[in-house]
Amino acid sequence: MSFIFKRKINYYETDKMGVVHHSNYIRFLEEARCHWLDKLGMPFSSFEEQGITIPVLGVNIDYKHHVSFDDVIEIHTYMKEYSGVRMVVGYNVIDEKTGKIVMTGETKHCFTNKDLKPINLKKVNPDFSNKFMSTLE
């Protein structure tokens, strides 16, 4: 199950060549991931209220095309892997105007308590765990 997050590119996100600077895509993925959690009925704040954090363990991105100021991108966000302790979230970023794939990528995460000790979400919050399980592609 994929969710789409649309976003317009701001001028300050571009570089001297007039294209989005590569580092901004990590921010875009985080925005899309927060939107995805909202749509799943699990806002990021609800994890924090329960003392659960979701740190990023790694980011992999393949850049395919560029976008520029005023372009609109669609970020398709989906669950690639989920174990209860770790998850991998996938992303396909598409230029809304051309339909071209701008980038593909993934972020790797784990679940921890406030002391950053790993936890198993299946045990700590079975409802959230079941929602994640239901989204696996």
Oligomer: single chain
Helix content: 25-40%
Tertiary shape:
elongated
Mean residue pLDDT:
96
Strand order of the largest sheet: 1-3-4-5-2
Order of helices and strands: EHHEEEEHH
CATH fold node name = Thiol Ester Dehydrase, Chain A
Report the count of strand segments: 5
Distance between the termini: 6 Å
Structural class: alpha+beta
Count of helix runs: 4
The fraction of residues assigned to DSSP E strands is: 25-35%
CATH class: Alpha Beta
**Rg estimate, integer Å:** 16 Å
Instruction: Report on the biggest sheet.
Output: 5 strands, antiparallel
Notable characteristics:
single chain; 137 residues; 5-stranded antiparallel β-sheet; 26% helix; elongated; Thiol Ester Dehydrase, Chain A; alpha+beta
Description:
With 137 residues, the chain is of the alpha+beta class. A five-stranded antiparallel beta sheet has the order 1-3-4-5-2. Strand 3 and strand 4 form a beta hairpin. The protein is elongated. The model has no long low-confidence stretch (mean pLDDT 96).
Question: Secondary-structure map with pairings?
Answer:
Blueprint: E1 3-8, H1 24-39, H2 44-49, E2 56-63, E3 72-82, E4 86-95, E5 101-110, H3 121-124, H4 126-135
